[in-house]
Amino acid sequence: MQNQMSRRQFLFGSAVAAAGVSAVGLFGCSGATAAEDSKETELADEDRVPIRLGGLKGPTSMGLVKMLDDAENGKTKNDYQFTMAPTADELVPAILQGELDILAIPSNLGAVIYSNSEKGMRMLNACMLGAIYVLEKDTEEINSVEDLAGKTIYTVGKGSTPEYLLNFLLDKHGLVMDQDVTVEWRDDPTEIVGLLAAGTASVCMLPQPFVTVAQGQVENLRIALDTNAEWDAVGEGSKLVTAGFIARKDFVEEHPQQTAEFLEEAAASTDWVNANVSDAAVLIEKLDIVPAAIAEASLPKCNIVCITGKEMKESAQKFFQVLYDQNPESVGGEMPGDDFYYEA
Questions:
Q1: Which end of the chain is less congested by CB atoms within 10 angstroms, N or C?
Q2: Which residues of 271-281 are buried (b: 16+ CB within 10 A; e: fewer)?
Q3: Of 212, 191, 183, 171, the residue nearest 294 (C-alpha)
Q4: Which of 209, 237, 197 lies closest to 60, judged by CA?
Q5: What's the pTM value of the predicted model, to 2 decimals?
Q6: Paired sense of beta strands 50-56 and 102-106, if any
Q7: Distance CA 102, CA 192 (A)
Q8: Looking only at Cα atoms, what is the longest distance across the chain?
């Protein structure tokens, strides 16, 4: 078993490198006897399953904060134990080894894990659509993808979703990366913010919440293009499914009720976060994701969602196909099978 796990970790490490990825209420019956009430409570307690969640420190975990706060106060149907990390490096081995049940992660990395775990993962939902923006300093020359011609864009994520996304959008508008548009890749968004502040860079592409951070530090920096809207214009009816929850197949099969309850509570939490931005920002800071001021400003642009079932499957498949066509290893070397998508 140990040798098998080591092999899986090795395979996953190779695939991740190619993918470019460096977070009950109990109800009694009115008029019931004490014995009946005690029995119902005992049965309800048996239904409460500790669900071990993982998420990245960023927008992929922001939609969960209300659910996690409710869980801390005993208001959820199941107990949630949450582990958060700045990168996937700590979380992926944990779900492969059975130490996590559900993980919020970039969707293409979920497909990679599926391919390298003997198809032992299920995609439960899409939890975030595109939250990547093109920004322009001091001018208003960029109002369409075509306007990127002749520009130099500073960005992060070479070999991962941002590169595939940018390449797809440029291609759809008749532009060729590194011919019509120059792309300067950097490892750290904060470096790009420094280049903008120094006047070395004037155009960049960043994800939230770094967009909000950059606009707070660099004067006259405006959002020129929303890549999610640009995707919607050319994506042939699909959605830019950049992140989602994956779960161990064994967990889903052993706990179908709890899996369904988790999705219900995650959806309710997402709706609450989007409708109560100021209050959600406080919880986001409490969970040490980002400061409340940054969370409040960036949340409306993070495109946090909870899309499930057929809609999730169709959109994710189209998104994965775009990535696969550019680099098969970005989704694990092959397109995920139908069994990857949880549709119960």
A1: N
A2: ebbbeeeebbb
A3: 212
A4: 209
A5: 0.83
A6: parallel
A7: 33
A8: 77
